Amino acid sequence: xxxxxxxxxxxxxxxxxxxxxxxxxxxxxxxxxxxxxxxxxxxxxxxxxxxxxxxxxxxxxxxxxxxxxxxxxxxxxxxxxxxxxxxxxxxxxxxxxxxxxxxxxxxxxxxxxxxxxxxxxxxxxxxxxxxxxxxxxxxxxxxxxxxxxxxxxxxxxxxxxxxxxxxxxxxxxxxxxxxxxxxxxxxxxxxxxxxxxxxxxxxxxxxxxxxxxxxxxxxxxxxxxxxxxxxxxxxxxxxxxxxxxxxxxxxxxxxxxxxxxxxxx
Length: 265
Fold this sequence. Notes:
Class I SAM-dependent methyltransferase; methyltransferase; transferase; SAM-dependent_MTases_sf; methyltransferase activity
C-alpha cells in the first residue's frame, strides 16, 4: 500500500481506521492524558451550564472518546457524532449512550445545513473536531462547511496535533511515534500503515500559527489556541473560534474557558 500522506488522505485512511477500530480504544487508553485532554478541550468551548437546549456536532468522532468528553462537559446537550469510518462508528455505537447522543456515517466536509436540520433540529451551537482537520483532503473546505453549519455566534474547537512551529515538539513527536505508537499499533492491529501515516501527517500539517490563520481566512473570529499539559505540551493544542454574529460580524467574545491565546511572534 502507498502510505504517503496524500495517498492516505485520498481514501485509504478511512480503510485503515476501519482495520484499527477493534483495537483503537486500547491504543488511546495507553496514551497518558488522552481522555483528560479531550475533556479540557470540550470545556474550552466555553458553553454555559449543562448544555440544556444546545445542539453539538462531534466531527471525526471515531469510537466515541470525544463524544464522551462532550457529554461529560455538557450532559444535557444534544450531540451528533459523525465519522467516515463504519468500523469506528460500530465501536462507538456498541457503547452505552443516553438518548440525546446519535452517530452518523458521513464525511465531515459534506455536511449541510439541511443535514443539521434533519439530525439535530436546527443550526449547530458548537462543533468539536478532535484529530480531524489534519486528515481531511481539503482543510479549507472543512472549515467552510463548519462555518455554514454553525448558528451566528456558534463556536468551534479543533483538538489537534501541531508541531511545525517547534523543533523540540517535532523531536518529541517523532521519538514517541517510533518508540511507542508505531510498534504498539502494529502489535495490536497487525500492521503499521495507519501509525506511520499518523507520524508523517502531523509533521507535514500546519503549525499553530498557520492553522490560526487558516481559521481566520475561513471567516471565523475570536480565533485563539491553548496548549495541553504533560508530554504533549507543545504537541497537542486546542484551537477555538466562532462564527460572527450577524452580517457585520459582531464584536469578538472574550477567550473561552482555559484562556487560549492568539499567535505569539
